[in-house]
Design a protein that fits this description.
Blueprint: H1 8-18, H2 21-40, H3 45-54, H4 63-73, H5 88-98, H6 105-112, H7 123-134, H8 141-150, H9 156-174, H10 181-198
Helix pairs in contact: 2-3, 2-7, 3-6, 4-5, 5-6, 6-7, 7-9, 9-10
Amino acid sequence: MVYTRISEKDILSWLKENLSEERYSHSLGTAECAKDLAKKYNLDEEKAYTAGLLHDCAKCFTNEKLKEIIDKNLHVEECEMLNYKTLHAPVSAYIAEKDFGVTDNEILSAIRWHTLGKLNMTEFEKIIFLADKIEPNTRDEKYRKEILEVLKENNGLNLALLRCYKETIKSLAKRELKICFTTIDIYNHLLDLKNVSDT
């Protein structure tokens, strides 16, 4: 099934023109990693590839452009506006729908929440979130291997997410950046799930 209105070739051309070289490489890596994770969890591989390819399509927009698109077209919670690094996620979902013709709600939601995440993510949303963190082209190889090992465990998806949130919170605190309360809520929820599975 095709999930976009325009061809993959045209999408790649657009991404190459609108992303930095590193971000373009990251997007290709995320698409392939998402496809691999989809296969592992018996999910739609083509859908995962599409979400991975488009997840950062607005990443290289200026902060001013991101804020303008959000103000005019989107509802974004106040806490999401605390850190400019997460603004591209809702805008990328918007661009995926508006410019690339994506209508699949699960793809759009996975793109929308690939930075902050949300409570009770679907398996599909989880694999896109993780693919963004562990793709092989630009991410740290040691960290990638650690997450892949965690994924082999029982309840591996949630444990891998928990590991990612631990690192995110530590990184934000170390850099003295504000932390969205949603991030804390998700971390606490994942910790509860881990504790339940441990008993």
